[in-house]
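Ticket opened by: R.M.
Priority: normal
Category: complex prediction / small molecule

The reporter submitted a protein together with arginine and asked that the result be attached to this ticket for the collaborator who will pick it up next week. Submitted input follows.
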Amino acid sequence: MAQKLWEKDFEINSEIERFTVGRDREMDLYLAPYDVLGSMAHITMLESIGLLGKDELPVLLKELQNIYEQTQRGEFVIEDGIEDVHSQVELMLTRKLGDMGKKIHSGRSRNDQVLVDLKLFTRHQLQLVAEAVKDLFDQLIAKSNQYKNVLMPGYTHLQVAMPSSFGLWFGAYAESLADDMLFLQAAYKMTNRNPLGSAAGYGSSFPLNRQMTTDLLGFDSMDYNVVYAQMGRGKMERNVGFAIATIAGTMAKLAFDACMFNCQNFGFVKLPKECTTGSSIMPHKKNPDVFELIRSKSNKLQSLPQQITLMMNNLPVGYFRDLQIIKEVFLPAFDELLDCLRMTAYIINRIEVNDHILDDPRYDPMFSVEEVNRLAAEGMPFRDAYKKVGLDIEAGKFTPCKDIHHTHEGSIGNLMNDKIAALMQQTLDGFGFERVEKAEAKLLGK
Ligand code: ARG
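Result attached by the on-call engineer:
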């Protein structure tokens, strides 16, 4: 069996090995390209402080680049008996380059290595999430503008309340995403700080140049305090989890609305039949399973910060193996979130709106406040107008005027979607994706 990086003078118990590795090899595959990037920055820095030869650096960089390409082609594997991605990369280097490969770990621990891997992975995923959120946002704004003038009932207590519109309904979820994007940006900024050089959590006696690896990897700054850098493990995941949860919360609510409004008793929206699913027994069925699955997956995603909190909140300062298990809930969460975001955008783009809802007199009472306001504007005291309209409705004598004029900010006649879009764009511009992409490309020699 292959040796562990830390194996010395005794045989490792195979049951202990099975249990301590667990699902870690599978999880570490998510991190492989980022492990390589982190190593490229680390060895470039090691050469600059004399811990690697001038002639050795390009050889090692070239081999790391090969390994990176393997990760991109899906050919990178963590072999049986190899503990994790960090061990696998080092093994590949030493197999190919001998002693030179063994030099790369100076001034580093797997503790700061996995930290930097997680930061680089998460940073990349957050960019994909931001882009997918923006795509969904654009679909919602487009639908909001398209159906600006189509009225629908607004509800309180699930009782018909006041006139609303599809413009408002779609636009509300767009603005919700604009707020979620602020959370995402805060999570991104916390993520985009360099933990490398903190080693096992207490730094190193080598004169490591942490600013250099910070710049090479395109981080905004470093996690300055080495103890804090290690304490950030789990904290970053939890806070990113909160950002994921707030986006998922927006989608879950939208999905619930869509399921409800799609039900025959409402009939406000409809999915094209090829986007519905059927029943094995009831031949008439056209079910909105897609929204139900978005709702359930999004609700599950909202438990992410709680799950992470429970795994880390009773740990004192310093590294613990507990942290490894966070990867099992955190790393796959991005695929699920991205799938939901893309599917929501896909289905919102195809959703059909009923523009004849108000032909049904059961919704007439939603114009009651309009009538009260009209009477009040004509001079009748508001309370008297309220009473008159209430009694008219009870007596079945209410004929609504459906010609409504709401003009104040953010209401039916004045959606302010341009302001919402500006808010979203302003947040997006603040991430700084371009600088990060350039740094990574440069490190990879592209
Ligand atoms: N698989 C480990 C993790 O995810 C990597 C770090 C191992 N460090 C250690 N001291 N055992 O946390």
